[in-house]
Amino acid sequence: MVITTTIPDHRAGELLHYTFASRYAGAPVPKFKMPEKSIPKEAAYQIINDELMLDGTPRLNLASFVTTWMEPECEKLMMASINKNYVDMDEYPVTTELQNRCVNMIAHLFNAPVGETETAVGVGTVGSSEAIMLAGLAFKRKWQAKRKSEGKPYDKPNIVTGANVQVCWEKFARYFEVELKEVKLSEGYYVMDPVKAVEMVDENTICVAAILGSTLTGEFENVKLLHELLTKKNEETGWDTPIHVDAASGGFIAPFLYPDLEWDFRLPLVKSINVSGHKYGLVYPGVGWVVWRTKEDLPDDLIFHINYLGSDQPTFTLNFSKGSSQIIAQYYQLIRLGFEGYKNIMENCMSNARVLKEGIEKMGRFDIVSKDVGVPLVAFSLKDSSKHTVFEISDSLRRFGWIVPAYTMAPDAQHIAVLRIVVREDFSRSLAERLIADIDKVVKELDTLPSRESTKAAHITATVEEKQHTEEEVLARWKRVLAAKRAGAC
Ligand SMILES: *Cc1c(COP(=O)(O)O)cnc(C)c1O
C-alpha cells in the first residue's frame, strides 16, 4: 500500500541501476513509472532478486509467529495449485472439500459441540484479521437483531478487550463502527484482567474478546475465570454477553500442550474462535480460520448465496478471489502431522524456548516477562536500562543477522520496553544456543560503550532519534555507492 505523497528514497534516484545490466539490456529501468519497453525475463529476474537480497532472512526473523519453513512435499502441492482460484468452488470442488475438512478438524480440536452426523460451522480466511472481522460482524449483527426485537436502541455497540489486543481489533472497531473498550494493563500484569473486563460490560457490549496468546508476551488470558464472572453477570442482568477467543497464536498450542486448560467451546459462552493457520498451524502466509460454536451463532443474513458459474455457494468472507495453496497446505499439515506430530513440534518449540529463557536469565541482566505457560516465546526487559536500552540491543543483534524486535508495552504499561523472541518450528536448539551467545556478546560490548542518555525516561525518544540517525547514515552510504557506480566504478 502506498499512502505517502513524497517518496522517501527519492534522493537515491528514480532509476534502478542494476548490477549485471550490460549482460542483458542497456538502459536502467524507471522505479515509479511503468517502463515503456519490455526487458528480457532474465534481466527482470536479476533486478528483482538483487533488490530483495536486502530484505531480512525470514528464518532469522524472530519477530514473527508466521511460518517460515515447510516440507518440500507440501511446497510441491502449493506450487501445483498456485494458479487455482479458491472461489471457483464449482470448478475445484475438491479444494472446497479440503477446506471443509480443515474447518471440521479445527472445530473438533476446539471441542465444538458437533454431533457425529453434523458438520462444523466455520470458514477459511486470509488470516486471523479477516477471521476476526467476520466473527466481530456476527456478534454485532446478533446483538443488533436482539436489541431491535426488544425495541431498544442499537446504535452504540461496544466490545471489551484488553489494551494488549492485536491491532486488527482496533481495525475491526473502526471499520465496523464498534466502540473498543480496553482494559488497561499495569506494570507486571500484561493481559486483560477478567474482573475489570466484566465490570466494563454493559447492555451494549456485543462480546468480550479474550486472547489465547497475547501478542506482546505470549501469555494466555484466563478465559475460564472470565467465563465464570461473565456468566454471573449475565444471570444478574438478564443479558447474554458472549465471548470470542482470539487464539491466533495459541489455538494450535493449547490443545497439544495444555489439553486440560479450558478456554474453548467447552465454555458455553464462547461462541466463536479464530486461529491463524500461518502461525502455529504451520502453513506459509496467509491462511486463518474462524469457527462458530453452532449454526445459530452465525446470523443467516451475513451469508451470501452466490450463484456463480452455475452453482449455489454459501460464502462469508470479505474478499472474493484468492489462492488455494494455503488451504491445501493446511490440510497437508493436519493429516501429515496428526495430533501426535503437532504435539511433538509444539513440545520441541517449548523446550527450545525454555533453553533460550534460561540462557537469558543466566546473564543476570534481564527480567523475563513471558510466562512458562503460553505461546513458545521469550519476552524480556533490561533490569537496568539507565545506561543502555533494549532498542540498542535489538540494533546490535542485527549485525549478527538476528532480527529481534524491541517495543514498549500497551497502556498503562508503556514505560516497560521489552525484547521478544518467537520460537518457531525451524528455530533449532543450536540456533537458540548461538543466539544466547550473541546476546551475551552484545550486552558485554554495550557495557564498554558510554551511555547515550542518562535518564531512563528519555530512552524511548532518544532511541527513535538514534534510529533515524542510522537510517540517514545508511542512506548516505548508499548514495555514495550509487554515485560511484554511475561514474563507472563498481
Ligand atoms: C497475529 C495475531 C492476529 C492477527 O492475525 P493474522 O493472522 O496475522 O491476520 C490477531 N490476534 C493475535 C492475538 C495475533 O497474535
UniProtKB/TrEMBL annotation:
Coiled-coil segments: none
Cofactor list: pyridoxal 5'-phosphate
A GO molecular function held by the record: glutamate decarboxylase activity
CDD domains attached to this UniProt entry: DOPA_deC_like
One Gene Ontology biological process: L-glutamate catabolic process
Enzyme Commission number(s) from the entry: 4.1.1.15
Residue numbers bearing the N6-(pyridoxal phosphate)lysine modification: 279
SUPFAM superfamilies reported in the protein's UniProt record: PLP-dependent transferases
Chain segments annotated as transmembrane: none
This protein's GO CC annotations: cytosol
Keyword Lyase: yes
Keywords: Calmodulin-binding, Decarboxylase, Lyase, Pyridoxal phosphate
InterPro entries in the record: Glutamate_decarboxylase, PyrdxlP-dep_de-COase, PyrdxlP-dep_Trfase, PyrdxlP-dep_Trfase_major
Catalysed reaction, written as an equation: L-glutamate + H(+) = 4-aminobutanoate + CO2
Family designation: Belongs to the group II decarboxylase family.
NCBIfam families in the cross-refs: Glu-decarb-GAD
The name this protein goes by in its record: Glutamate decarboxylase
Organism classification: Eukaryota, Viridiplantae, Streptophyta, Embryophyta, Tracheophyta
